[in-house]
Every structure is written in C-alpha cells, then in structure tokens.
Amino acid sequence: xxxxxxxxxxxxxxxxxxxxxxxxxxxxxxxxxxxxxxxxxxxxxxxxxxxxxxxxxxxxxxxxxxxxxxxxxxxxxxxxxxxxxxxxxxxxxxxxxxxxxxxxxxxxxxxxxxxxxxxxxxxxxxxxxxxxxxxxxxxxxxxxxxxxxxxxxxxxxxxxxxxxxxxxxxxxxxxxxxxxxxxxxxxxxxxxxxxxxxxxxxxx
Length: 204
Hints:
Blueprint: E1 4-12, H1 21-27, H2 29-47, E2 56-62, H3 67-74, E3 79-82, H4 88-99, E4 102-107, H5 116-125, E5 131-135, E6 141-146, H6 164-174, E7 179-181, H7 194-197, H8 200-203
Parallel strand pairs: 1-2, 1-4, 2-3, 5-7
Antiparallel strand pairs: 4-6, 5-6
Helix pairs in contact: 1-2
C-alpha cells in the first residue's frame, strides 16, 4: 500500500502578547505579532506550490476558538484543523493521529529558513526511516516527521527549552527507531534571530 503524504503546519493566531513573547519583551507585543504574522504567511506561501501536487497540507491552528479569524487571515482555500491537547506535545501527537496512516511531516511557522527542498528531503527520508527531525540552533526542532505516530516522542519533553531536540532523540533511540537528521536551522525567538528573517521579507 502506498501511504499518503501529509504536511502539517502549526500556526498560532497573531494576537499581540500571545505570540513570540520573548520578542515582544524586547520589541513590543504589536511588533512581535506582526513579525510572526509575516513569517507564517511567508512559509505557507513558499510551500503552497507543493500542496496537492506532492502532499496534502493542513493548517493546525491555535487557539481553537479563532477558526473564523484564521479563515479570514489565511484564506478559505486552505485545509484547517484545530490543535487539540493540553500541551504542545499532546497537540502534536494528536495532529499525527488525525492524519494516520500516512507519512507525515509537521513544522512550525517561525523558521523562515524552511524551504521546499527541506520539506522534500524530509518526505524522502520517511521512505527509508521511521522518523526525521530538523534540529534548531536553540536546541529545539523546527520539523519532525513520522511514518507511524509514537506517543512516547511527545511525552516528558521540556517544551520551549534547549533540551527538546536532545530529549527527543534520546526517546527515538530508546524506541529503537531509525531516524534521519536534517540540517540545523535557526528559528526566530529572540531579537538576535531577526536577521535570519529579514531576507525573506522580499523573497517570500
């Protein structure tokens, strides 16, 4: 059986004070929210040509009560589903469950360096590996892909810290899963990261 391919993009509604709070403390909540809005739009636009041709794409949005706001923001032509769960790990695992069986890649919306090539590499890796992970410079990860959902990968992880990638790869090893590691990229969480985002303001 040929498995379907699904790309899941986790997106938050760009409410000032609710997104990119570290940036907000330095730049102000309105500026931080505007930057996040631009990053999310840029990533979705950049990957749009692959949607429906190579894989199905779903925007998993948060918070769930902002469904109409997301439709107005990103447009009615995208597929949407609410994030469900009490923490990030549970929300991610539930998103994988929602699209199983498939080879599924999940990304966030705050890593402007994500490219079409990176996404295609991830899906190609899942042809041979159980998992694929894209590490971020800050110790987290910007991408995780799985050929089969495993709840253990999303439990007992210190989300939002520099331990996330290390803890996840330890769990991968404990579960004896094969895993491909993608190039390390930088997401935008602090003012010193903004230089990574600026080139994409014009390139989209």
